[in-house]
């Protein structure tokens, strides 16, 4: 490189001129072999000059959007028709879940057809004429804003969305239906609760069984100041739904001197001071296991919600939102049994609860 900073092996005519700048200034070499050729002349497409070709493209776009709608309907139908555990052989994939295969296939077709329809519409029916625009300052001037709105209206007109009603309507139909696939998938979050959150396994005539000994409970089995855990008769630990059922059916019994019971309904629903309450905390559903016999308070070990079993199971401390539900009990043939189910849903609050 010479003292002037130029490469000696580069021809002089190919070097930049004196008016170059570092930030995009004009370049004016004496003889510039790389002059801007400009935009090539616009060549119209066949759809621009032949309305029949434009109609064919319109029908092709409408077909793709319609196929997307049918695929979305097929997605929903497949979700209803195929059992979740059905396995089928599909070449070349082998043995696969029939539900997953058809859900994937129909959803893929629905999304692909929307994309393909939009691309074909843009390439064959929308305006394809290139327009060069000079860079403008970041802050838009009023006349620029007016130009943008004018360009938007021109673009809407050139897209033919108003004139090509078949394309427009089928596109809106496809876009409106495809989100239903996601709505249907929400159904897979789990079974609908129906009334399962409001009912338990307790009903009239069901005996109370000691959860530790698996024997029916008699009144004399419950000592004053003791805490006994119970479950409905017939609920066994080898039942495949035991964990789901005991999460609602778990019961705790304490014996309080009748004169120490403050709530009248609690006294009426007890038997000789034996009161039965849900063991499930009304905060987040933890099992309650700590009992203070002098105060008749029970404490949830998870978040320290405290309930008064001598006063209707009401909350006296902690984040629990409502009192523990009480089970109405009586004695028949010498054994403790339920008179009915809980009057209130057990466990934490849920949004449908009144």
From TrEMBL:
Location of region: Disordered: 1-45
Keywords: 2Fe-2S, Cell membrane, Disulfide bond, Electron transport, Iron, Iron-sulfur, Membrane, Metal-binding, Oxidoreductase, Respiratory chain, Transmembrane, Transmembrane helix, Transport
Signal peptide: none
Topology of the protein relative to the lipid bilayer: Multi-pass membrane protein
Biased composition (Basic and acidic residues): 1-22
Any Gene Ontology CC annotation: plasma membrane
Domain Rieske as annotated: residue spans: 243-338
Subcellular localization: Cell membrane
Keyword Transport: yes
Primary localization class, coarse: membrane
Co-factor(s): [2Fe-2S] cluster
Listed transmembrane segments: 60-81, 101-122, 166-186
GO MF annotations in UniProt: 2 iron, 2 sulfur cluster binding; metal ion binding; monooxygenase activity; oxidoreductase activity, acting on paired donors, with incorporation or reduction of molecular oxygen
Record Pfam families: QcrA_N, Rieske
Family (UniProt): Belongs to the Rieske iron-sulfur protein family.
Subunit structure: The cytochrome bc1 complex is composed of a cytochrome b (QcrB), the Rieske iron-sulfur protein (QcrA) and a diheme cytochrome c (QcrC) subunit.
Functional description taken from the UniProt entry: Iron-sulfur subunit of the cytochrome bc1 complex, an essential component of the respiratory electron transport chain required for ATP synthesis. The bc1 complex catalyzes the oxidation of menaquinol and the reduction of cytochrome c in the respiratory chain. The bc1 complex operates through a Q-cycle mechanism that couples electron transfer to generation of the proton gradient that drives ATP synthesis.
PANTHER family according to UniProt: CYTOCHROME B-C1 COMPLEX SUBUNIT RIESKE, MITOCHONDRIAL
This protein's name: Cytochrome bc1 complex Rieske iron-sulfur subunit
Gene: qcrA
